[in-house]
Amino acid sequence: MNRFDYIRPVSVPEAIAAAAVPGSAYLAAGTNLLDLMKVGASRPERVINITRLPGLDRIEWLPDGGVRVGTLVRNSDLAYDERFAKTFPVVAEALLSGASAQLRNAATVGGNLMQRTRCAYFHDLAGACNRREPGSGCDALGGENRLQAVLGWSEHCIATHPSDFCVPLAALDAIVEVEGPHGGREIALDTLHRLPGATPEQETALLPGELIVALRLPAEASSFSRNARYIKLRERTSYAFAVVSAAAALEVEGGTIRKARIALGGVAAKPWRAREAEALLEGKQATAQAFAEAAELALAEARPSGDNAFKIELAHRIVTRALSLALEGTPQAMPALPASPFPALSGANHVI
Amino acid sequence: MSSEIAFPSPQHRRHGSSAGQPLTRRDGVLKVTGRATYAADNHPEGMLYAVTAVSSIARGRVTALDVEAAKAHPGVVEVLTPANRPPLSHDPDDKIPPFGFRVEVLQDDTVRYVNQPIALVIAETLEAATEGAALLNPQYEVESARTGLENGERFDTPAVGVGAPSRTAYGDIDAGLAAAVRVTEADYVTPPQYHNAMEPHAVVAQWDGDRVTLDMPNQALALSCAAYAAYFGIPAGNVLIRSPFLGGGFGSKAILNGPQILAILAARMLDRPVKLALTRAQMYGPVGHRGQTWQKLRLGTDGEGRLTALHHHVLAATSSFDEFMEPAANASLPLYASPAILAEHDGLRLDTGTPGPMRAPGEASGSAVLEVAMDEAAIACGMDPLEFRLANYAETEPGTGKPFSSKSLRECYAEGAKRFGWSGRPLEPRRMRDENGFLVGWGMGTAVFHCPHFPAEARATLRADGTALVETAGADMGQGAWTALAQIAAEALGLDPDQVELHSGISSLPDGGIAGGSGHTASAGLALHNAGVDAIARLAELATADPASPLFGAGNIGVEARSGRLHRRDDEGRSESYSEILARAGQAEVVGTAKAARDPAVAEAHALFSHGAVFAEVKVDPDLGQVRVTRLVGAFAAGRIINPRLVRSQYFGGMIWGISFALQEEAVTDRRTGRIMNADLAEYHVPVNADVPSLDAILIPEDDPYVNPLGVKGVGEIGITGTVGAIANAVWHATGVRVRHFPIRLEDLLVNQRDVTSAFGN
Amino acid sequence: MSLSIGLTINGQPRTVALDDPRVTLLDLLRERLDLTGTKKGCDRGQCGACTVLVDGRRINSCLALAASLDGATVTTIEGLADGEALHPVQAAFIEHDGFQCGFCTPGQIMSAIGLIAEGHAGDDPERIRELMSGNICRCGAYQGITEAVLEAQKTLAERNRRDAA
Ligand SMILES: Cc1cc2nc3c(=O)[nH]c(=O)nc-3n(C[C@H](O)[C@H](O)[C@H](O)COP(=O)(O)OP(=O)(O)OC[C@H]3O[C@@H](n4cnc5c(N)ncnc54)[C@H](O)[C@@H]3O)c2cc1C
Ligand code: SF4
Ligand code: FES
Ligand code: FES
């Protein structure tokens, strides 16, 4: 890890002022930033600890039924907040399917949103990576790329965004509140992360020095609480990033879909909202056929970026699955294995 | 810290008093309180930190290192490169037998694999040494990397594993195949895997003149002392290795490696203690791995489903500069009866670190494939996989015809099948679903592992207070040696284990042999047993020669040691306690010593193996392909069981390695550069708790009068054999998809039900 | 630059002068405060060996910058046993053979204590497995670990009931 100046601002304006100096990075829990600093993929000269900033660690319910979550709220505290989990169960499920209990206890809302890609070549300093070092090339292309993007990638970068949390947030029209050198603004979560195009190094819509202060979920998002699921495919049962994942939320009335929300994870450099697929479902009967058509549409533009054509098929199937599980209804209690396609094994025989 | 390492803490729960009892671990309290000291926990006064810089290319030369930049970092004390590395007394290119490998210790600027050490940075703090290494910014002259079948260099090899023959032929394989009604033939691939013991390799080295003390995890103390002595030009007796606890080894801590040697060298050069701990990523290179294999199996069967020929060919990867090849085909030698067996290996040179023995070397990758091939052959014959194996049961060792010293495999099959509920299993795949619609599959595999025995020595001291001290330089990397060895010694000494203090894990004690090949309990255990017997004999001499003793004159009749007393064999009532005997003799103690080794005649006359049968249930998501191993039942027969609690844990550990092999582990290499793209624990998957919902291990009683006087076989590695195949076969049974490479991945199972159903039965 | 922070470690308030802002909580404990019970298995949040409680919550100490924890309360494996009496989780790990080499064990135990305090698993083994999945055990002691956590969970619940009565 390189040497850096450690800065402890005590207010948001102070933090923003500190971050105005180039080479600065905000430090929340550090579970992503420190990791990247250890491998050298990130070498900030100034580390600005934001965890002591006042007022950013609260979950506030808004008069209209929406919620405002401070950026320093820990992933586990949000997921286990009773009212939050009841109102936005698909978000809670996604949160609990990410990382491990220890990491969720530390990880903050803003940190999760802003975590960087897990692309192995991004972490491998010996490799060329446009995202880490603009113009150097992309070693993932033609490399070991079975887990890379199948949607929205460019020949400059085929990385995916790893967050689980962001997937239902994108589906539910979450909004990110930002403060910056030029004041505050709001960014739709769906536009927070950028597709690579020719400038993969521009990962998000945040401008230099901008600080996420809160995340908002609109009141309308709570209308899905009865029919919403997040499903995540992994290469082991837990403590693994998604190969592909999907959030599906439905508002159903007498078998007819009133509203639908679909987003995919692990397929692109951003959580992938499937708006056309949603539109296709709205007003239709909730049938397997309709779900399959929606999945088809959601993946219509998908193409492999390497040895990963299977991810398109998988993504297709997981959208269908997430939709049908959402239709079955949000489980009464959080599943023992959140977001796993496997229902819990009750009474596995060894346990005394 | 004191140089004596003792495990007196007998806070374990008492279930009984001798071997055979499920005592809890002697070192349990130390381990659950954080007081067990592993190598990197040591911190001598004035200690420096060393961090290796490693190559990011697989083949070529280092042309430049920015030593100045590293040295300019505050706290950096020295940078070791080929330019200033002090000489060693032994040529690192010259292997030290029996387990010595060629090591990379900055002898030149050549790079032979990714993560090879290319410099060592020593600093006052870990942070400084780490960043110093990062600042070296190496420049290379790169040569193209040989990373796979296409560009690797094939060669003939006389030996595989550690000195095993690369080709063994029994009978006429062509005739056997010609005589077959059916020949089942297929190709399989197993991936490179890394031991990834939880504790990274570490050393804290302190020199005092020409003596060195090394705190390091070590599975082979005496051999290592000799090897370090050779490298540093000092007598072996001047090397003291302290290895009271190993945070797992799995074979990777039995062999010397470059980084540790460099740290020791740095400590001598700078005349200060030096600590080095590899990072997780740096463990993917210089400390061994399980090499990749490409295997072909040909199984000829007759009309009754009996093997007429078993041909196992293995192409095994090794490095460009040394040889260790998975002796995988040899897994086909001891198990199934066939008039013709041919096991053969070729080598493939790749630009990787040299592979090494990793938990069940050869057996794991060979058994994985053999058990899948057996399943395929059973299906071809229309037979139940268990029935098929029973039809090919070997009553004597196939090929040699030697009797087994003991073999309870039939009981393993029967008990395992019963506990699992195998009997209702449909032959066809895709016939079982659970209540949620998940595909359910059942598969099985046979487990087998040989029983090596290493020479070992021990000392047993009976003390005036009636307790004993027993000593041997053994290693406990989690198998429970400290507990099991104390139980064995206690039995020989006629004492309760709580009365026996065990000293071990330090090289100054009598040579405890190697902790490997699942042979440590038998090897060090027999030495301790014999030392105990020797101590009792000496004590008996004192008593029977003493007219004041109730045992006087019992010399010819003999005495028995029980509960801290010697009893006349012919008259139970006449006995005397150890302390009374010693007190009267005016002796503070009596010392027994022993050396133990296998009787070569026994090995000559018998085939020595542990056996087992593993049954697996998997559930597979029919659309998404995700697999969960929902039940594993293993039944194992491994001679006498010293401590069932520990043995069950060993079986479980092996079975979990089986899950890992079948479904998770693979080092992913960039074909262009040879770089390992998942050299960590996030993307190199090993099972987590949620992957292991249900394990069951049945301990089949087995009495082996030949394998060694203790009747003990090994239990540490057998669990992985059988399990891998059982899981792969269960996946087939669930899905109808036969995957012939490991690990089995999601995408392998994404087929349409239609295709599968029609594929079945071909 | 020396940075001074206050920490309460295993019940003892301490002022720590950090010689380097890069020091993680794990390296602070292990290399500077002689609390080596907490282990480093990966240094990257990928194994759980370094799990400790910070302000009562289990976290990976390898990914926490010590400087950022000014004022925090830290509990490590060394702070559990009450004299010679083991914490119920420690005792249950021994009884159920929830370890082999012992290297992951301090992390497993701290994680188990965190899990029980969080109260989301109850006595459901599947939830325990899931919520203990952030602690890798290469030796494969998972079954014993799950059983140990279940038992300790019951012991502690029992104790709480008694204390309440
Ligand atoms: C082994 C492992 C497994 C994981 N598995 C998963 C998984 O399965 N699913 C998943 O979703 N995640 C996973 N994660 C990632 C984890 O969720 C993130 O590391 C975590 O959410 C980051 O939060 P943090 O508070 O630690 O952020 P930090 O590491 O402190 O920051 C991360 C980034 O966000 C920036 N940042 C932080 N806060 C703000 C803010 N308020 N405004 C602007 N920028 C900010 C930082 O500058 C930094 O660049 C895993 C992580 C690890 C180490
Ligand atoms: S895919 Fe993107 S992140 Fe990965 S190497 Fe290419 S440019 Fe870098
Ligand atoms: S050492 Fe911290 S998680 Fe592995
Ligand atoms: S006990 Fe060895 S890693 Fe868990």
UniProtKB/TrEMBL annotation, chain A:
Domain FAD-binding PCMH-type: 1-222
Gene3D superfamilies in UniProt: 3.30.465.10, CO dehydrogenase flavoprotein, C-terminal domain, Uridine Diphospho-n-acetylenolpyruvylglucosamine Reductase, domain 2
Keywords, alphabetical: FAD, Flavoprotein
GO molecular function, one term: oxidoreductase activity
SMART domains found in the cross-reference section: CO_deh_flav_C
Presence of keyword Flavoprotein: yes
InterPro entries in the cross-refs: CO_DH_flav_C, CO_DH_flav_C_dom_sf, Diverse_Substr_Oxidored, FAD-bd_PCMH, FAD-bd_PCMH-like_sf, FAD-bd_PCMH_sub1, FAD-bd_PCMH_sub2, Mopterin_DH_FAD-bd
Source organism, top-level taxon: Bacteria
UniProt keyword Hydrolase present: no
Record-given protein name: Xanthine dehydrogenase family protein subunit M
Organism name: Mesorhizobium zhangyense
Automatic annotation (TrEMBL), chain B:
Domain (Aldehyde oxidase/xanthine dehydrogenase a/b hammerhead): residue spans on this chain: 33-144
Top-level lineage group: Bacteria
Coiled-coil features, chain-numbered ranges: none
Positions of region (Disordered): 1-27
GO molecular function term, any single one: iron ion binding
Record Pfam families: Ald_Xan_dh_C (PF01315), MoCoBD_1 (PF02738), MoCoBD_2 (PF20256)
Name of the protein in its database record: Xanthine dehydrogenase family protein molybdopterin-binding subunit
Native organism taxonomy: Bacteria, Pseudomonadati, Pseudomonadota, Alphaproteobacteria, Hyphomicrobiales
From TrEMBL, chain C:
Keywords: 2Fe-2S, Iron, Iron-sulfur, Metal-binding, Oxidoreductase
SUPFAM superfamilies xrefs: 2Fe-2S ferredoxin-like, CO dehydrogenase ISP C-domain like
Residue intervals of the 2Fe-2S ferredoxin-type domain: 3-80
Keyword presence, Iron: yes
A single GO molecular function term of this UniProt record: metal ion binding
PANTHER family named among the record's database cross-references: OXIDOREDUCTASE WITH IRON-SULFUR SUBUNIT, OXIDOREDUCTASE, IRON-SULPHUR BINDING SUBUNIT-RELATED-RELATED
Protein name (record): (2Fe-2S)-binding protein
Gene source species: Mesorhizobium zhangyense
